[in-house]
Structure formats: C-alpha cells, structure tokens
Sequence to fold (759 residues):
Amino acid sequence: MLKPRVPLEEQKVMPVNGDEAVAYAVKQCLVDVVAAYPITPQTIIVEKFSEFVANGEVKTQYVPVESEHSAMSACIGAAAAGARTFTSTSAQGLALMWENLYIASGLRLPIVMAVVNRALSAPINIHCDHSDAYGMRDSGWIQLFVENSQEAYDTTIQAFKIAEHPEVQLPVAVNLDGFFLSHTLENVYMLPDEEVHRFLGGYRKLVKTYVDYLNREVEYKLDPANPLSIGSLDLYDYYFEHKMPQVEAMKKASDVVRRVNEEWYELTGRSYGDGVIDSYAVEDADAVVIVLGSSAGTMKYVASLMRQKGFKVGVVRLRMFRPFPFSEVRELLKGVKVVGVMDRGLSFGSYGPLYLEVNTAFYYSKERPLLVNYIYGLGGRDLSPAMAEEVFMDLIEVAKISEVREHLKFIGVRS
Amino acid sequence: MSSGNPQPEIGPIEYEYGKEHSLPLEFNLRKLAETRKPILLPGHRLCAGCGAAIVIKLIGYALRGPTVIANATGCIEVATTIFPYTSWAIPWIHVAFENAAAVASGIEAAYKAFQEAGRLPYKNVDVIALAGDGGTYDIGIQALSGMAERGHKVLYVLYDNEAYMNTGIQRSGGTPIYAWTTTSPVGSIIPGKTQPKKPIADIMVAHRIPYVATATAAHWADLFRKVRRGLEANGPAFLHVLSSCNRGWRHALEVAVEVSRRAVDTCYFPLWEYKLGEGYYLTDRSLQIARNPKLKQPIEKYLELQERFRHILRPEAAKLLKQLQEYVDAVWQDLLNRAVNAPK
Fold:
C-alpha cells in the first residue's frame, strides 16, 4: 500500500457523530458563507458550526436564515457573489428548497449541501429514508451517499473539490442517513486544517467566461468591475441550448468524482471503491444487492455470514446516485444471475427510483440479470440482519427458478 | 436623441478594483443626465410609460458607487433581461419570486466574508434588493422579515404597482381597497378588492430597522435623498416606492408621474421617513400638506385618472367613496399623530 501523504498517526481521531463529522469538515474548507435552518436530524451540523463561529474558530459568515427556502436562496446569492457556500437540511426542509435546487444547478453554482436523509411527511416522521433525496434527483445536483461518519467527513471535503472543478461547476449533495449516521458516535480521522486547504487549493477559484457585451473573459460572479446579469429570462430560443452544458457537466462529473477519490486516497489512505461504486464480494456472486447509504454496512455483514455458509452473494453500494453510473453498474454486474435493488423510498404508482435506474442500465445488455425491487426501511424502520438475509435468500430462490414472480417487494412491513 | 446635449457613453458601468468610488449626491438633473451613466440602459421591453423604469433610473442616480442588485421575479426582471440582451449596467441577479431579500442577504454575507479576509477589491459594495408588491407584501414577506431581523446591510426597494402586473393584473396584498384587478373584478355584488392595502412600510418600521421611507418618482429629489440614506443606514433599510402601471391602473401612458404626484397630494400615499431612535418624519409635499392642510386634495383627484377605480366614482357608489375618503383621512391623521415634524 502506498504511504498516504498524511499518515494515519498524523490524523486526529475524534469521537463524533455523522452530523459533527460534517460540521468539522466544513470548518476546514475555507467556506465563506454558511446559510442554514435547523431541522431534525440535521440540527447538530448547524449547532456545531454555530459554536465554531461563536468561538472564532472559523471565519465563515453564518447566516441563520428563517427557512430552508431562504437558506438555499442565500447560498445562491453568496455563491453568485463568488463565495464558497454550504448548507444542510433534511426532508421537509429539502422539499421547501425545491425550486431553488434547480436554480442553483441551472446557474452553475458549486454549492455543497449535506442532506441528512429523513422521510417526507405525511405522516410526519423524523427518521431515515431516502424519499427526500429521491425528490431532488432531477434537480441537476450531484448526489453522493455515504456509508459511515468517516465517509461523511471525507466526502464533505471532497464535495467542494468536485463541485468547483472547472469542468463540473455544479452543486453537490452529500447524503448521510438520519440518526443511523447523524446521531451515532464513531471514531473519525480528521486531517490537519492546512492539508484540507491544500487539497482544495485554498479559497474557491472562479471560472472565467466570455461575455459578449463586455467583450472579454470575466470571472463568473457578481462583480462591479465586470457587471454581469445572472438569472436572465431565457425563452424557447435559448433555454434548451443553455441546458446542454448542464448535461455535459454531469457527464464529466463521474470522472471527477473518481479522480478526487484517488487524490483522497493518496492524501489520507482512505478511498471508497472507485469513488462511484463501492462493491463487496461481487466477482463470483450469483446474487447481488444494490443499496445506498448506511444499510450497505448491514448488507455486507450479512453477506459475509452467508458466504461462510456457502452462498455466493455480494453487495454493491452506489456512492454516486447522480449522475447515475449506468455503464459501471452494467460492467460490474455482467454475468450475475440476479440483482436485488434496495430502495429506501419509492415512487408511488411505480418502483423505487434506484430500481428504475438499474433497469435502464441493463436494458441494452444481451445478458441481463433478473431484477427484483425491495422497498425497505421507510420512516426509519431498521433493516435488521434477519431482513437482509431474507432479501438474499429470496434472490437465491429467484436465481434457482430463473423467474421473478414479484418485481416489487416490501421488506419488514406488517401486513 | 437629436438634442445635441452631451451624454455619457451608454453601456456597462465598470468600477475599477482598488480605486476610490464615491459618487456625490447630485441634484442637478441636467448634470446627471450629461455625466452619470444610467444603471438601466435603453432597449428594455418595459411598457411605454412604465412607472418602474423611471423609478429605477432615478434610484441609479442616487447610488454611492459599486452596487449589486438582487431582483425578484416580476415585470422588471422579465422585461430587462430577455436573453441575449440585458439592460443592466451594474451587476444584477434574479433567482426567484419570494427570495430577493434572502438572495441579497447571501450576497451581503459573501462581501462581508471577503472584506474580513481582505479579499474584497473595493472599500464597499452596496446591495439592493428590488421587488414588486407581490414579491414583497405576499410571497416575499417572510424572506424580507428574516433579512430585516438578521440585520443585513441591504437596501430593499419595493416598487409597488399594487397588483401582480407581470402575470396580468391580479390582486395582491398591496392592492388598495375597491381597486379592480382581474382577480378582484368589479361585479354586481362585489366592488373590486374588499380589503385595504397592507401597511407594509409600517410593518418594516415595526422591525426596528435603521431606516424606512416612502417615495415616488414625482418627488425625485426626495427619492434621491431617501435612497442615499437607505444605503448609508447602518443595517437594513426599506424604501417603499409607489410606481404606477398604466396597464393595471388603466390610465393614460403619459401620466405615470402625475398619478404619483396626486397620490401624495390626496394623502393616499404620504411621503415620510422613519429613523430608528428618532421616529417618523414627513417629507417633501406631505410635510407641506401637514403644515398647510388646505393643500390636501380630495381622494377623487387621485381616483379620477384611473379606470381601476371608475366604479367608485359612479353616483351610486357615493357611500364607498365616502368610506374610502374616511379611510385615507384616518391613516393620514394617524401618521400626523406619529410624525415628529408635524405641527401639533
């Protein structure tokens, strides 16, 4: 193994929960403006960050806005002024931001947001599922999901680098499971501040763009020396063309996510699969599950137990949901007999969003695995090892009979 | 223009980094027109006779130097920035309808962060939020209230044309009582809007921010001074500008300024300013009326120019007209009671 630039013994171990891990990461990222509104289970992030500000440990302007809508609005304003910006929210807060999510990406502002995943109302519930994240999947944000608090820390720092990459310039959402991660203590290794600064290349760097009415290349920001109009009315004669660079930027984001994961490995000794997909025991597997977030830990644990009993099962954890790694999924699962797609959320009247993507990934393949969609853990319902085993056994049965009798199954729900 | 008068070159206003930019407040209109670049350039698609275009141009003449504008969705936004064109000579951003104050908060926070880190290439950058009545009284009031409470150094300019004009004249919280709009139509039973206008400027006074004022384009020197004081205020400032819309108010194209003047002459829209710690001051024509009540015109003088109030001027609506006059008088008297400089 390559020796990381900052060896483990030079990294500071802190017993923190997932929210705190995010707050500590943001503290080190030379963030100019944080605008946020409290909502369970994201609250600890804003509380902790407020402490940093109150104690002068960070120079960030903290804007304690009166709603999540204004949180994202203030981030958009600040980012358009050239600032590095961060916010965080959950569930209803994310839903309230909705129109601004599209504006943040449409205006190509590299805002970073921690989404502490929580079920959407009604009924009101404060616990984890991915319905909030699924709700923003079409909004033009890069969506990363983490498995543990260490990854929450690491990914939050990486997110700024990904978002601000000249070829990307898109907002990034770092998803961490509410309570399972946000409120659970874990030892997290943290870098010295200056290493994070160096990794990010200091303060946010702005991209330049040619502006015809100024007849020169100028930095893309609100600047009295180079007066730009940002957020113009754009009708049928230009809107479509202006959406195309967003399409292209998303395409380029996958590579950037991978490269940043590699750089992180060289710096810290930690990496998460190839940055896009993190897989476990997939190579010779007959049955594989695909999952997002912290449940991957349970699935891997159960898979390891089942392997001991001779069942060839594996786990694919998608670290990146947007852009969706279609070809990577297809390549990785080539030859697998049956794939179970686990969604912690669903589109009512359809399937789980992850399942739909996996179907798309395989549609043009000659050899397609059988696909089953398992909806689990809504409203924070625990995914127990027993349930995980039930999913694997079900997949093994499907593999045996080579037929999917039910495509949509609900795990751990009383009848 | 064929007048032969010298004019500043039309185009973007570019403030050099690291230089002192301190524009004097100039009241000589000729000098302004000849030397000061307008912030809103010709070629925009606002309607002929639009009050808001005049208001914005006037505001531009009162700026101190580098300024950024956060504009809410509305007529101004759609008519001044139809891609690939823009009429804005200074940095301008539009995000959405209800959040001009929140966007401005973020911009102000960013400049503060840059300043504290020694990364702002100017001594100061002023931030103005610009929104219509819908974006202020209704959908934007939460963001506005939040901005005021948090104390962002932003001048919020409300150009109030008293309805959702951009979408086709629908009633807002800023629409006055008895006004016709497409969603408060004058029917056989209901005489237009049945609720009075929300006292938005007083609501902002209640936030105890440093500076609140009302203004119109007709009283331009008063407007200049108020813009300047708003920008110089040590915290949030709110400027309520009555801005006519000939499409929605149903008046002739050429009376945008006259109708604003009459709004003040009838005390329908009194001119005042509020300074935290000092109180309300009447200004300009409204102070003259307070000192000489004979100058106060009956409300009909304001209504008669506008077809949106036509039904109130019919003989059978005499009762409604009387009620409206009583309402205007009561609000005016209330202001007289509060104003520090009103004769007691």
